[in-house]
Design a protein that fits this description.
This is Sulfotransferase. By secondary structure, the chain is mainly alpha-helical. The protein has helices at 8-21, 31-39, 48-56, 69-74, 76-86, 93-102, 105-110, 112-116, 120-123, 138-152, 156-167; strands at residues 2-5, 65-68.
């Protein structure tokens, strides 16, 4: 099992834009309205912190590899090598480069109409890291940090996310 996790602040930012672009989902007048809903577990798909907490029970299993979105963005070649090794797949240098290129956010975004139809433009927005800084107030940032610590701060997944997001930033 490959478990891909992401900075909860960027998850919230991404979900905010996603929900406002998808008419069947609830939309929010303002970022502040969305943030309250996100932090009070009023999302149609549940609470991201609870999701991470549940997965944390499996993080030490030998058949589970956890990788962060941030790791893959920082060093996609190493990420693909590690994933291939985990699954026991040997790749030539040419195959490795092909996977890295074809799985890049930009490549997936460019091909989204072919792979996801009209839905593609909603799924692939920016693909960056730290976009949350464009929306979060200082108070919201502190509330998210507090919730992070309360839910997953000392766990394996929490430690991995904290390292990737805060120590490498």
């Amino acid at each position: 099992i490959l478990l891909l996790i992401r900075n909860p602040k960027d998850v919230a930012t991404s979900f905010y834009h996603f929900t406002n672009a998808m008419s069947p989902l609830p939309s929010y007048e303002t970022w502040d309205d969305f943030f309250v809903a996100f932090m009070t577990k009023k999302m149609p798909w549940g609470c991201y912190f609870e999701y991470l907490s549940k997965w944390n029970k499996y993080a030490d299993k030998e058949n589970v590899m956890t990788i962060t979105y941030e790791e893959l963005k920082e060093n996609p070649v190493l990420g693909v090598k590690n994933i291939a090794a985990f699954f026991g797949i040997s790749l030539t240098e040419k195959e490795l480069q092909s996977v890295v290129e074809r799985s890049s956010f930009q490549s997936m975004k460019n091909n989204s109409q072919k792979t996801h139809g009209a839905f593609g433009s909603v799924l692939f927005r920016k693909g960056g890291i730290s976009d949350w800084k464009n929306l979060f107030s200082e108070d919201q940032n502190e509330k998210m940090d507090k919730a992070f610590e309360e839910h997953i701060g000392g766990t394996k997944l929490g430690t991995k996310l904290k390292y990737e997001v805060y120590c490498k930033a």
